[in-house]
Amino acid sequence: MTLGNLTALLHWQGSTALLQEALTHRSSAQATNERLEFVGDRVLNLVVAAWLHRLQPSATEGELSLQHTTLVRAEACAQIAEGWQLWPLLVMGADRRSLTDVARQRLLADTTEALLGAVFLQQGYTAAQHLIEQHWSPLLATATQGTGKDAKTMVQELLQARGLPLPQYSVVSQAGPDHAAEFVVAVTSALGAAEGQGRSKQAASLAAAAALLKELLKDLPA
């Protein structure tokens, strides 16, 4: 992959300066892509949320939350980056050979978000939306079919990998009649806590796990 090929892939219009900035890691002596990553993260979250809402009018909030987390997490963004063949294009000061697999994945995910931020700032929301919906579609199929691990499993595995206790779930509240109850469940862990809402305890637990997982993945070191 060359910068020219990437420009064509992103349907890029205008100067490549912003595009080059998106490919520049903070370890280099040049301008960092962190500001673009900040924008791209928000764009990705918004586009995916609206996309899922539009495609699945009957899905519950808990189901949408779980699928959303699957599509925006670092692993998904890194998978997109691998498909775009971004690795050779990255500008960074650290020796790439010394990076762990986790660090490489996080770096690729951050770069993907930075590129989305650049597309949004240069070409607008619609261009970013089309790009995301086009390239995230294969991941959407997996997320909606439920073939991947659910958020509760992923939270548990993340904690276990760090030798930490398992998360604890508790019902915070229940409202409405039995046939249409709304539950709020809280999850607490050594790395943080979150709440989720759903039509059943299970759905609320998944929504809480999805909310916690999103924060945990965001805070993983690069």
Q: What is the gyration radius calculated from CA atoms?
A: 19 Å
Q: Order of strands side by side in the largest beta sheet?
A: 1-2-3
Helix-strand pattern: HHHHHHHHEEEH
Number of domains: 2
Query: CA-to-CA gap between the ends?
Result: 23 Å
Fraction of helical residues: 55-70%
Summarize this structure as a short list of keywords or feature phrases.
single chain; 222 residues; mainly alpha; Ribonuclease iii, N-terminal Endonuclease Domain, Chain A; Double Stranded RNA Binding Domain; 2 domains; three-stranded antiparallel beta sheet; 9 helices; 3 strands
Topology:
Blueprint: H1 3-9, H2 17-22, H3 34-55, H4 61-72, H5 74-84, H6 101-123, H7 125-145, H8 151-161, E1 168-175, E2 182-189, E3 192-198, H9 201-218
Antiparallel strand pairs: 1-2, 2-3
Q: Briefly, what is this?
A:
This protein is mostly helical. The chain has helices at residues 3-9, 17-22, 34-55, 61-72, 74-84, 101-123, 125-145, 151-161, 201-218, and strands at residues 168-175, 182-189, 192-198.
What does the model show?
This protein has 222 residues and is mainly alpha-helical. The chain folds into 2 domains: 1-148, Ribonuclease III domain (Ribonuclease iii, N-terminal Endonuclease Domain, Chain A, Orthogonal Bundle), CATH 1.10.1520.10; 149-222, Double Stranded RNA Binding Domain (2-Layer Sandwich), CATH 3.30.160.20. The chain has 9 helices and 3 strands, in the order H-H-H-H-H-H-H-H-E-E-E-H. The protein has helices spanning 3-9, 17-22, 34-55, 61-72, 74-84, 101-123, 125-145, 151-161, 201-218, and strands at 168-175, 182-189, 192-198. It has a 3-stranded antiparallel beta sheet with strand order 1-2-3. Strand 2 and strand 3 (192-198) form a beta hairpin. The longest helix has 23 residues, at 101-123. The radius of gyration is 19 Å and the shape is globular. The protein starts with a helix and ends with a helix. The model has no long low-confidence stretch (mean pLDDT 84).
